Each structure stands twice: as structure tokens, then as C-alpha cells.
């Protein structure tokens, strides 16, 4: 079992070409995703209005210029008349998909007059909040702005509060970063994706600290906490020492024990590493936060990350023909030893822990489904007191102490597994999910903080909120890119920042979506025969999907089509540990 270094962002190996200088995924052809590390210098300010522009072009150019937030959207303000100087650009940012129109609004005056109304219309995919988090809401969008002609030139004289930009412009002007907070139960740090302006680069560190001091985003509210208390603040602006360390001097931290100080240090150091800060000198009221460590790097705190990736020596598996088999490793397609591989049970799906030491399987017994749990290496399993008409494929928490499944498309059940007592069953409060429709698939993220679920054909995420007394609930449920994905069949976590889904949409049989729903990307479907029925994903491993002929693998890079790894198995369910 291996922990992923906090600075490493798993590459999306579905590339046809790399998009230079961009940390996100483009809207069209698949690319390899690389997180931009260098801060860079300030970008060129977008040009102002073109002399002689007509109202339609003026408003369109204004929308593009609005992507630059420098100097309170100074570039966009050059398109405004004196009447619109009070424009409130802080009232939120709406992101449109790749296409938008600027057209005369119904009933607008003729452009031959000196005043008219232009309508911006398109499809909104969500909003950027003041906390830098993206909240997905896909819906038709329209907004009217008034333009006037003064001294022969058109300018915007009246417009609603807030900023509107297309996705491509947003990605050019904002950088995704992971801010880090704390799982209060396991006492480990977890990532929370935010977006900060790309320029000025020198201001990114200060912005990241603002986000840390403000606490987790709405997506993780109730699930993650910060060890920076509500009254905490910076004693002074961030500075750089003569030897290159960034000095962060905090105050009003309250009483923190040694482990809490280390977790707080991990929050700050890992978050600042996202904006190219290599070394942090972390102080509390002018004194070292950790007395025995003057400076910290991300390597010093990476071990506190909650995300656990499967070890390279833990093979992927597949359930086919009622048996569990290896699908990777030294003996591909070889049945596992014991009852799950020898045909004793009619297995429908399975999951192993990230270290491969435990295995859970759903088996059909007399028309009902039963959950089996046991030792993955030895092959011994036993039924737990859990049966239903249907069960989704199991999913393990990162520690391997719990396995989850959904009973009869409605009840999320968890089984607690340890070495000192028989497995114990419990229930997850998933009312917010179940209210949306039948739960067809559910997977825990490999940091244990989120679920991705297919509910009523839609792709949803939710936060896993735990209490000290053991209660568990799924909160903050959000649907991701419904118009683009269509009817979703199944999904899996590629990383804590990205999800791979298979759909019934012929234009996007396989797609990858960022965890906040900002970007959806089509993955090539060459050689696949619809409909697809199962998918498995993990960082730094090929994608697996099952179509009508068997299991196929796609590793990206120069690979232009899917390659079959198991033929004649249309019922196969591939799985990676987790």
C-alpha cells in the first residue's frame, strides 16, 4: 500500500495532445492533464474595445475581457460608460460552456439609434463562489445589457451584478489548486479544490492563505474541518526570507497539541505547494509553530494525506462467469484461490482493499444477493448478515475497515470489519441521495471523504460526514454535467479530483469529469461496442470498461484505441483496489 505524495496529481492518460500552460482539461479532444507548477509572470491585459465596434461585437469582447480579474476586472471596465462605473463585479462569476451568443434582445431599439439592448445567451455550467470553489448548476442562461453610443463609440451603460465568462476563458485566467483541510475522525488532511486567479502570480500565495483561513468549501462542509480556528489570522503579509523560505506568521491559534500543530502545518504547507511555494517558515506569534522544525516542505508532511492509492503490487481483478479472477499481474485471468474463484459462489461483483488483504463480494444465493467478506490472499470468505434483492458492487474505505454497498437501490449499508470481532453492519444516512431516485452505483473516494453515485441515471457527488460517536451521513449532494453526460451507467474515481463515468450517450460513451463538475472531457471510444456496463479506474493505471464483447483497457499516451484484455465476457465487472 502506498500513499500518493501530496504534490502529485495523477496524469489523465487519455491524451492526444497536451494543452500548453493549462492546468485543466480542454472541452474537446482528450489530453494529458498536468498541474501547472510554475507561478509565471503576469499575463498581458486583454485589449480594450475596438474602435468602431458594433453593439453585438462590443458585448462579446466584453465577455471575453471579463476573464481577467486584475484590478477589479479593469480590462472589462474599459468597455463600460461612466453610467456603469458602479458595476458590482464581486457578485459571483458564472461560467458558460464553450458556446454563447450575443444577439439583440426582444424589443431592443434599432442600432441606428443611440441606445439598444443586447442579450447574452448560452448554457451555464455553474458559478465560482467568493471562496474560490466551483458549484455546478447546468442551466440555460440569458442576461441583457444596455449599450449606448457616445462620441461615435458604443459602450455598456447598464448591466446586472456579477461576471460572466465562457469556460475556455475561465481556464485561461484561473488556476485550480488543492487547499487542504482535516478529516476530524482519522486526523489526516484532505484536498478541497479551489480556483485562484492566475495573475498576478505573486498574489496566489496570499489568496491561498485567505481560503485556508475561511475554512472548507460548501462541498466538504460538515465532513472536513480546519485547525485554523475562526479567529485565526496572519500577523503580517507573507514575505520571503533571504534564504528563500516563505514566512507565514499566524496568530490567535488557541491551544494546539503537538499532533494538531503538525496537521495545521500540513494544511498550510501542502496548500502553498500548489502555488509553487517550496519551503515554508511557519510561525505562531513570531515563534516556530513546530519548535524542532524551522522550515517545512511538502515532503515533510505528505505522510499526513488521507488519500491512499493501491500499491503497484496489488493486482486489478475482474468478476466474470460468477468467479473472481486476476485481470493484471503475473497471471492474468487466473481465478483467485478459494471459494470466490473456484465456483462455490455465483459472484456478481467484488472489491479488494487498497492493500489487497481483504476482499468483499456480492453473490447471488437463491434469488437474493448476499455480501461475502474475507481474506483476499487466502480466499476464505464468510457471509455477513446482509441480504437484498439487489446490491451494488462493494466499495472499501481507505483504511480497509469498512465496506459499503447499496441495498435494493435505496439503502446505503456499511459493514465494519476488523480482526477482533465478527463483521458488524450499520447504515449510512443517505436520504439526500435516495430522494433523487434509485441508487445504481456508489463508490467511495480513496481519501474516504466523498462518494460518487449514479442516481436515477445522473452522476452525483456527496461528502461523507462522520461524527465521533460513529454516525455517518452523505451530505452536500451535487449533480455533475447532466446535459453533457446524459444517462450515466456507472462511475469510478480516477483520483480525488476526477471521476470516470460510462454513459448511454453515443457521443460520450466514456467521460472524465472533475470532482467539482467544472470540466467534462470525452475519452475516445474506438473499438468499444455499446452499451457499456462496467468501469474501473485508479491513478496511474489504465482505464477498464466492459462492453458487449468483454473487458477493454485504455492507457492514454500514444494509444489511439481501446485494447481488449478479456474476450467473451459481456457480464464482466473489472475492479481496482479500493
TrEMBL record:
The keyword Signal applies. Pfam families: Germane, Gmad1, LpqB_N. The keyword Signal applies. Residues 1-20 form the signal peptide. Residues 205-293 form the GerMN domain. Keywords: Signal. InterPro entries: GerMN, LpqB_C, LpqB_N. It comes from the Bacteria. This is Sporulation and spore germination protein. It comes from Pseudonocardia hierapolitana.
